[in-house]
Amino acid sequence: MISPDLPLIDLHHHLDGSVRLETILDIGLKYNLPLPAATLDELRPFVQVSDPKPGVMAFIEKFEWMIGILVDYDTCRRIAFEAVEDAAKEGIDYLELRYSPWFMASAHRLDVHGVIEAVTDGIRSGERSFGIKANQLGILSRHYGPDIAWRELKHLLAFKDEITGLDLAGDEANFPGTLFGEHFKRARDAGWHITVHAGESAGPSSIWQAIDELGAERIGHAVHTPEDPRLLDALKERKIGIECNLTSNVQTSTVADYAAHPLKLFLEKGLLATINTDDPGISAIDLHYEYDVAAPKAGLSDAMIRTAQANALTTAFLSSGDKKKLLERHTQK
């Protein structure tokens, strides 16, 4: 159960994985795109996951129509605005939206700079309209390789003051983090926070590399951490945040079921583990579902769920002043 005296925070939320089904249909019909269906009910199975997939990359295929409708910058702006609106309607106090601008630009050959500009405008407009705090994290997509990553990073750095941090996502199994060490050094030098998808499709060595070489302050997923007891200790000692995504990990077959997820273990060990949505538009869930349904299925007690909610505030990429304001908004109610 969500604790009303703590802020509700979603730290691991992909913008390009949270496009409304209604928006996909609307833009598809407006621009005569070759949609696989012409109604919401018929479109749903092409966009949302109904059965577990045999791996992360099979899950990522569901992004086809999330980015397939990004025909222009107005649409990029629209999906960013709607993501903030949806979070506000859900009662989320702080949202970190992450995305790869190169990936979003790819379907219709948009200018990467223009995509970032449009997303930034959409997020800021959403903040002003709905009174919610939202920051953006840039993603370097592993599967494009290090050369494209340099080009993508250059565009992201042009918005250095608008972007809060950098992430590495995509095909972890075939594109190890060692290919991107210099990219992340450049991001740290720019003053950005660092989070890295690791330990989802690869083992503990991927997580070690992320924290030791890339400078990760948080790890996305980290599901394979328990395979190395030393890593469990290191994550606790270094106060590394863990962005857990329960339903997503079940749907990608990263874990067999909710009960097999290591989130409960992380919390028992005192790690800074949190509850997040990942790709709510694909998973067909929201943050309330993850707290109210998925977390209990994963064996979490009410006290553990509260701890995870508190951990999100602790590990959020926010100033201490902003964290204090978020907390005061709830303790004064």
Descriptive key words:
globular, 333 residues, eight-stranded parallel sheet, single chain, alpha/beta, TIM Barrel
| Percent range of helical residues | 40-55%
Question: Tell me, what is the CATH class?
Answer: Alpha Beta
Tally the helices: what do you get? 17
β-strand number: 8
Report on the structure:
By secondary structure, this protein is α/β, with parallel strands linked by helices. The protein has one domain: Metal-dependent hydrolases (TIM Barrel). Helix content is about 50%, strand content about 15%. It is built from 17 helices and eight strands. It has an eight-stranded parallel sheet with strand order 1-2-3-4-5-6-7-8. Helix 11 links the parallel strand 6 and strand 7. The protein is globular. The two termini are about 20 Å apart.
Outline:
The chain is α/β, with parallel strands linked by helices. It is built from 17 helices and eight strands. An eight-stranded parallel beta sheet has the order 1-2-3-4-5-6-7-8.
